[in-house]
Design brief:
Layout (H helix, E strand, L loop, with lengths): L5 H11 L13 H29 L13 E5 L15 E2 L2 H12 L21 E6 L2 E8 L7 E4 L2 E7 L11 H5 L2 H7 L5 H9 L8
Parallel strand pairs: 1-2
Antiparallel strand pairs: 1-3, 3-4, 4-6, 5-6
């Protein structure tokens, strides 16, 4: 059976979600990205809560039955967002639609879909989220423009925040329950931002996979 190494996931994620181009490239405003980070953090909490609820009901994680022999990836992205590159090891990429269907079947209700507020990736990558499950372990990653004390700094304006049900020093993921109740995370969620603008932006894709 193929052996999966955490380092491979990190390398693959780096290939799939490349760091941004030079900071001076004016592809979007700093103000937009600062506000978008608050939305990204809210989305991380939203999906973390869904995964916890799913596990409490099913005793497993979405698509876990497909991930016994190789890692399963889901790119949480709509039609204006795409990943480039792919992991070097054997893996399976499952469409967002199938992941949503699995979530809803396990939760026995409909769920809204939330995507990175950055639609086009012109000069700024990543602009999507990643869910990965392998056997009984999941990871969910978002990437942030700003530096946060709870995120891993990768490069300028490129900070990775990842949660997992099995966080440890090696994978550098965060325990969702601990992260989401921490003072630093809660304070980040309280930062004022243009709520109406981002809600209008999100509304177009709340049920994208059902369109």
């Amino acid at each position: 059976m193929q052996r999966f190494h955490r380092r491979d996931f990190l390398i693959a994620a780096g290939a799939l979600l490349a760091a941004p181009l030079a900071a001076e490239a004016q592809w979007t405003s700093k103000l937009f990205q600062d506000d978008a980070d608050v939305v990204r953090l809210k989305h991380l909490k939203y999906y973390s809560d869904l995964l916890a609820e799913y596990h409490s009901k099913k005793g497993s994680y979405p698509l876990q039955e497909k991930a016994t022999e190789m890692p399963v990836y889901v790119f949480v992205a709509h039609d204006h967002q795409s990943a480039s590159g792919k992991p070097a090891y054997k893996h399976l990429v499952v469409p967002m639609r199938e992941w949503v269907q699995d979530l809803e079947a396990g939760l026995e209700r409909s769920v809204d879909e939330h995507y990175d507020p950055q639609f086009a990736g012109d000069g700024y990558k990543p602009n999507l989220y990643i869910y990965m499950v392998y056997r009984d372990t999941f990871f969910f990653a978002v990437h942030l423009y700003q530096d946060y004390p709870f995120a891993k700094h990768v490069s300028e304006h490129y900070n990775k925040l990842e949660v997992s049900n099995k966080p440890n020093r090696q994978n550098q993921a965060a325990d969702p329950e601990t992260l989401l109740t921490s003072e630093a995370f809660l304070n980040a969620l309280r930062v004022p931002y243009k709520v109406d603008f981002f809600q209008e932006r999100e509304a177009k894709y709340l049920h994208f996979t059902k369109q």
